[in-house]
Amino acid sequence: MDHEHEYRPVYQTSLVDPDEFWSTAAQSIDWDVEPTQIVDTTDKRSARWFPDGRLNTSVNVLDRHVAAGTVAEGGRADQAALISISAMTGETTVYTYEELLAEVARFAGAMRDLGVTTGDRVVIYLPMIAEAVIAMLACARIGAVHSVVFGGFAPPELAARIDDAEPVLIITASGGLEPTRRVEYPPIVMAALDLAATNSVRTVIVKQRPQFPTIEFPAPQPATDVLPSSEQTIAARWVDFDAAIANAEPAEPVSLAATDPLYILYTSGTTGKPKGVVRDNGGHAVALDWSMRNVYDVGPGQVMWAASDVGWVVGHSYIVYGPLLVGATTILYEGKPVGTPDAGAFWRIVEEHGVRVLFTAPTALRAIRRADPEASFAKRADLSGMRALFCAGERLDPATFQWASEVLLGDYPDIPVIDHWWQTETGWPICGNPLGLQQLPVKSGSSSVPIPGYRLRVLDANGNPVPAGVEGNIVIGLPLPPGALTGLWRDRDRFVASYLAAFPGHYLSGDSGYFDEDGYLFVLGRSDDVINIAGHRISTGSIEAAIAGHDAIAECAVVGVADDIKGTLPLAYVVLKQGVEVEPDQLRAELIERVRGQIGAIAPLSDAIIVTGLPKTRSGKILRKTIRQLTAGEHPETPATIEDPSVLTALADRILALSNPGRFETESGAGSDDVATTLGTPTP
Ligand code: COA
Ligand code: AMP
């Protein structure tokens, strides 16, 4: 093997000489102004990558591939850039690079005509239709900062994001197609605008889909007529997407500083208030381009399918930006792994479109396994063109790994099943098996080794490294590599408190785990109050806030319990207000509906159990870790700080009386305040 492409030396160089490593990687990007400085670590806590470089991300994903000519000429102009497949409508639409560029430039022109300028925020609340990709790239073209909100979130979650980002524009659609129902988006946007405190939104653009009733809008007006003349904002103006682009001239790309924000993506913190992760332009382009080639082993002309949603970081990085940066073809899929129409949906697409790398969440594989345990659909398809099956979003549990490797891909021993670990905050993998560099042996239950750029450590509660095999807090030494978050939107204090305060010089991932003797990382779970439902990251704090709003509830605690398909489901313990009497089944139904209405259908409350009290510390903090342990059937020690031990005894008795406590899972950690929480591991 070529020494330069072996994992170890490359990893070492990335840490010892990051300037050399990332300046080489940066050569794959087209810069308007080449960076002369690679990283500015004056403030090590938020490194600025390529600080004097200038570029435009949409040029790097589109224009440069078109300018290089057709495939025959060495470019990508006539190659498929985006294949948009809807299992819900049965339609497939292919955009070549040239066609996608034309759509993006025209929509960017339409936004500019509506008064959107560089630095403005634009909320994108769309289902999985091509317009979502077009809208994101159009924002990148004019330097507007997009903030995509997952279509499954309910009005209060959308409103919280609108209030924080203060967008001038919202882009939505008449609706999204779910297997059980049609979700109309405009009423959700209207409800969110009613809830939001900000009056920043001047325009709402709606993409009308033929599956939904047509909405009549007045023709879009020139920008001066649309914009409010004073601070007293009028209600947002609603504009039809197709009418807006009808007369728009294509917009030229705007040259941006590498450190200018490309997007804000909100993710769950330990409280109900989402965190606005900010991504820059330059570091993001360099890191994603590098990861496509070196982690996923996907390059020009090859097909990558990240079966996620553009509302999540996986969708941002590996449906939209990553594949297009390297001139690959990406697939956008509206549908589910099962039931639309069957458990063969993924494998038919892989065969038909020659997918080289499929990226999905373990929960999707579990759903497929339940529907088709023998993987008969996969066996009927020709999957031989696949390089690998990548999983992330949650830990790839050994049982699912084994089924995927031995049953699903049993006929293809050369196609590895790769677990890799990352977060919204990092934007690209922290740990994985770097197939493009060197394919390492795969270990069940492990997300393999640290990816170049990430200095990983596992620390105990005192900040000391723990030996191999011992669980602790997984942290990343600063500075974070390019592409990782540069901060939280307009909230420096929260950025520091959430990630940097616990272990000086390190970023706290919020996950706990251990390294084995070979340097493979095993991620075991969150050490804070975040749970992962079907690969969706949700804070128990936001679910508690929804429940606490019910008239009958005095207080509550939400913990995660194991679910065969979705990994984790939320379970609530509730204490009633004094003197209130309720019918438990009715209360349960009302709380389930409340959580659905406040957060979204993606947060299905598994149960609500009425208890007489919740164990607390003397300072009034709910002892969530103890509650989790009891729920999991463990016998936790009574914490020294407990206010009233009899409350704990009563709760333990109540849980024991429940029919099936054994199904509950353990999660470690404690604390619901919005500061970093860490795992207390004994000092070795
Ligand atoms: N817009 C509106 N509603 C949405 C939605 C969206 N974008 N996505 C999900 N929902 C709704 C669903 O309609 C469903 O509503 P219902 O309770 O009224 O039926 C609810 O949210 C739950 O949806 P989902 O989590 O998709 O569960 P499911 O039972 O329909 O399907 C799986 C189960 C495992 C197939 C599905 O969860 C899945 O594919 N998960 C993979 C997730 C993933 O890829 N995550 C990204 C991580 S990389
Ligand atoms: P998100 O920010 O929504 O991508 O969620 C990130 C979180 O999901 C991580 O902090 C982990 O808790 C979990 N996660 C994602 N991928 C993995 C993985 N491969 N193994 C274990 N946990 C994972």
Automatic annotation (TrEMBL):
Domain AMP-dependent synthetase/ligase span(s) in chain numbering: 77-477
UniProt-listed Pfam families: ACAS_N (PF16177), AMP-binding (PF00501), AMP-binding_C (PF13193)
Residues covered by the Acetyl-coenzyme A synthetase N-terminal domain: 7-61
Residue intervals of the AMP-binding enzyme C-terminal domain: 543-621
InterPro entries referenced in this protein's UniProt entry, alphabetically: ACAS_N (IPR032387), AMP-bd_C (IPR025110), AMP-bd_C_sf (IPR045851), AMP-binding_CS (IPR020845), AMP-dep_synth/lig_dom (IPR000873), ANL_N_sf (IPR042099)
Highest rank taxon of the organism: Bacteria
Region (Disordered): 662-684
Molecular-function annotations in GO: propionate-CoA ligase activity
Protein family: Belongs to the ATP-dependent AMP-binding enzyme family.
Name of the featured protein: Propionyl-CoA synthetase
Organism, scientific name: Nocardia camponoti
